Amino acid sequence: MTEPANPPVAAWRARLQAWRNATQALLLRSVDVMRLLTERIMGFLRLFATLGLLLIVLLVVYQALQSAQLVLVKPFAVPKSMTDRHADAGRVIANTLKQELLLAEADIYTTVQRNSRNGKVNIEAVTGKTDDYLLGAAIKLPETGISINDVVEFIASIFGRRNITGSVYQDQGKLFLQVELEGRMFSFERELGTRDPNALNMDLLRDMLRESRHRLLSVASESHNLYYYCSGEAEANEHTESQLAALFDYCTRLQSAQLTPASLGALLDELHATRTQRFTSNNDTLRHILAQITGNALDKTRLLCPDYANTKVCQAPVVPEVANLSLSLPAPMPAAAAAPLAYPALPDAKAFQADSLTMRSMMRVTSAAQTLTLPSVKALQADCEAQPAAKSEAILTSNRTEGDATLLYNNNRPLQAVEKYAQAIQQNCGNAFAWANLGILLMNTDPPLRSVEEAQRALTQAVSLNPRIDWIQNNLCIAHAWSAPLETLPSAINHAACDVARTLNPANKVLLDKQFYLALADRYFAEGAYSKAADTYQAALSADRKRDCNTNKVIETLVLLEAEYGIVGGKQAACAILQDALPLPGGKISACEAQLAAFQCSTD
Known about the structure:
The protein is mostly helical.
C-alpha cells in the first residue's frame, strides 16, 4: 500500500494561500480606502476652491460697491513724442490730477471743520485714491485673459462708478488738455512759448489740472457742485434734478442782480424756516452751506435794507444813501430836465452766457445827491498798470463786489454802485464786467453821472480784457454814439464795435439793435429832438416787444412826448406797442408788470 503525501507540506501550502488571499483582500481594501480618501480630499479641495472663488467674487463686488460713488482718474492719452521721453507720462498726469482733486476735497473738509461746533465732521468724498482695487491688473482669471481689475471695473460701472479720462496734445505752439467725465468735456490751453513741445511741461499741465478740479468735482457730486456754486467758484448747477434743488435755488436767487428788498426778505424767511434747518441737520456739508447762504443773505441786507438787524423786516431806505467814495469826473453832460431817463439795468456777470444776451429792466433812478466825486477811469487804469495779476481769491472777491454793485444799481442806488465797481476793479483789474458796467453807469442821466469820455475809456478797457462779449462791444458803440454829432446818429450803428458785437453773436442782433436804438432815443430826448426821439423809441421796439420794463419805459415816454412836447400820436403808438407786447418766456413776470397792467388805452 502507497503512503499519502506529507501532511505538513499540504498544510503549509494551504496557509500560504490563505495568507495570499488575506493580503490581496487587505490590498483591495486599502485601495478602496485610498480611493475614498482621495475622493474626500478632492471634494475638500473643490470646496475650498469654490469658497475661494466665491470669496474673490464677494471681495470684487464689495470693492465695486465701495467705489460705486467714486470717480477714478485713468491714465491720460499723450503723444508718442512724450511717451518716448517719459514712458509713464499718462499715469503721471493722472496722478497729478488725482492729487489736485484730493486737495480740493481737503480744502472743503478744512473749511467745514473750521466752522463746525465740535470740530468733528463727515464730508462726502468722491475721489478714489487708487485705480487698482483688489489685486490689480496683472492677475488674470484662468483661461480668460481677463484681469480681476477688469472684473472690478465692469461691476463697478454697473453700480455707477465714473472714470475721468483725458488727453494731452500740442498744436501751433500751444499745449492742450482735455478732460472728460460723464460725457462732459473740459478743454484748456496754454502757450508753449520757447518751451520744448516734446517735454512733459508739468508746470503748465499742473496749472490746467488745477483749473479743472472744481468743474470735475461739480459734475461728480451734487454736494460739491452746491458748495462751489454757492461760493461763486462754479458757474452752473450741474444737477438740475438734484435732491438739493431748493438749496441751489436759494443761491441762484441770492446771486441775482434783480434781488429786491421784498424778495430778499422772503428768502431770509425761507432760510430760517424749520423745515430748511431740518433738511440739512444730518449733513455737515449741507449745514455749512446753509449757514454760508444765510450769512450772505444777511450781508445783502446791509446793502438793500440796513435796518433789518433791528426791524427784522427788509425794506428799502426812503432816501438813498450818498456814495462814500470820493473821486473827480470831468464836467458831466447836462441831463434833460423834463424826464429822467435810464439805460437798461446793468448786465449780471453771473447770469451771462457767451451765446445769449438778456435785456434787463429799464430803471428810473432818483437821488438826493447833487455831486459825485470818484477816481477817474484814467486813474484806475494807471493804478492797474502797477498791479500784478489777481490771484483766485481776489478774483472771487472782485466778482462778489461787482455783483453787489449791479444789485445796488438795479435797486436805485447808482452812487453806491459806482463806488462798488471801482472797488471791484481795485480788487481785480482784470474784471471785464466791472469795467463794462462802470462805463454803462457813467452814461447814466439821473443823477447826472454821464461822462462820455470816461465811459468810452472804461468800456474800451473792458473790451481789451475780453473782446468776445457782444453786449460790451455794443455798449462801447453806444458810448461813441453819445459823443457823435446829432446829425450823424442814424449811421452810428455802423461803428466797428457794433459790427463786432453782431458778428460775435448773430442770433442776438435783434436784442443788440433794441438796446442800441433805445440809447439813441434817449440821446435825441436829452438833446430836445423830440420827434426823432419818438420815432426812434418805436423803431427800438419794432422787432421785439415784451411785457417788460423796456416796454413800460417806452410807452410812458411816448405818452409824455405827446402830453408835454406836442408829439402827435405818441399815446396811440404807446397803446399799439402795449397791445402787441408778448408775455415774458418761461412764465416770468416783469418788475414793471403792475405799471403795464395799469396803463389805460382808449377803446375808441
